[in-house]
Design a protein that fits this description.
Layout lengths: L3 H17 L27 E3 L6 E3 L1 E4 L13 H13 L4 E3 L7 H9 L7 E6 L7 H12 L4 E6 L10 H16 L3 E8 L3 H10 L4 E5 L9 E2 L2 H16 L3 E5 L11 H4 L5 H16 L6 E5 L3 H11 L7 H14 L3 H4 L2 E2 L1
Helix pairs in contact: 2-3, 3-4, 6-7, 9-10, 9-11
Length: 345
């Protein structure tokens, strides 16, 4: 006999598929002149947007450091991963995002960019839920990144904000404010894979310069897919952050790989040529929103960097063909065991 929870999940997945078919630290100090620097102004053909009230004018394609760890299926050697990050820099990328719990990601980015530090916007996160551990975590990040200041420091979404109340998150924020006062950090923010009720409260606090939100065609977070209610809250976050002039960074643009590198494994039998078109369609879907200043995308190979650059430097129009492809693939995706194992939020 089918249980009520099973029926509820199936009804949710059915409704989601139907909806998709219709949418479109210490005494170190940063250099005095670094506080006024705007990295990325000579970024070639990648369009730029200003990251809200930070004033940083950056190429809208950002590098997601979650694509670097070996354990997370990056096939390259350490040396080649350092070269990959440097390749992304040489091709015009200037926003580099990582985190303390992204395994070797910080060390790779630090090695790749140590002699270009002043030309990049370096972003990392603290995932601790204990205020007394914040400084130690930031010290470790600074050491691995081979720098003595950070352009952006975020409260991590997961682990981090997801495991905390808003009140706890603001205690972490208070520690970040201290680091900013010591000129160790320039700008403060947070990331959110879901739990957008908490994210909206942090935005409304007025204490953050930017936010990083899960924003893509697929309504997914770290280990959950969303209900319409959560999507509405995410949209409320976008609206309020934009109203307050905050910087807005999109993550999960390619659905955490569901619309990219892993699409053929998750939905076997889907036309290979059309699978290759999915990442570009997913990117153009997000590019339609001018409120988003940077799209942070994990890239594991030089071919992925080149493919994304081609999309960002080309026509950003999300076409009817893009929308049809995304809807068709998503309908099949939401019938797979991969999605059905995810929590519903």
């Amino acid at each position: 006999m089918k249980t009520k929870s099973t029926l509820g999940r199936r009804e949710f997945l059915k409704k989601t598929t139907q909806a998709l078919a219709t949418v479109a630290v210490c005494e170190r100090r940063m250099p005095a002149d670094a506080r006024a620097e705007t990295p990325g102004q000579s970024a070639g053909t990648i369009p730029t947007r200003t990251l809200g009230k930070t004033g940083l004018k950056l190429p809208i394609l950002g590098y997601g450091g979650a694509g670097l760890p070996k354990r997370w299926r990056n096939p390259l050697s350490q040396e080649d991963r350092v070269a990959l990050v440097r390749y992304a820099y040489d091709r015009g990328l200037r926003y580099f995002d990582t985190a303390g719990n992204y395994l070797e990601s910080q060390a790779i980015i630090g090695e790749a960019l140590k002699d270009r530090r002043r030309q990049v916007c370096l972003v990392t996160k603290v995932e601790t839920t204990k205020p007394e551990e914040v400084r130690k975590a930031v010290e470790r990040s600074l050491k691995e990144l081979q720098t003595d200041y950070l352009d952006v420091l975020l409260i991590h979404g997961t682990p981090g904000l997801q495991q905390m109340s808003v009140e706890q998150a603001m205690k972490i924020h208070a520690e970040l404010v201290k680091l900013r006062g010591e000129k160790i950090v320039r700008f403060l923010g947070f990331s959110a894979h879901g739990y957008f009720d908490k994210a909206l409260a942090l935005i409304n606090s007025g204490g953050f310069d930017l936010c990083m939100l899960s924003y893509g065609y697929i309504p997914r977070g770290y280990d959950q897919v969303w209900t319409a209610r959560m999507t509405k809250l995410r949209d409320d976050c976008l609206a309020k952050a934009s109203e307050l002039g905050m910087g807005i960074v999109a993550m999960k643009v390619i659905g955490g790989g569901w619309l990219g590198a892993w699409s053929g494994y998750i939905v076997p039998g889907f036309d290979k040529q059309r699978l290759e078109q999915l990442p570009a369609a997913a990117i153009r879907h997000v590019l339609q929103d001018p409120r988003v200043h940077v799209l942070a995308i994990g890239m594991r190979l030089k071919q992925e960097v080149d493919a994304n650059l081609k999309v960002f430097s080309g026509d950003a129009t999300c076409t009817p063909e893009d929308r049809a492809l995304l809807a068709e693939f998503s309908a099949k995706l939401f019938e797979t065991d991969t999605v059905k194992k995810f929590k519903i939020e």
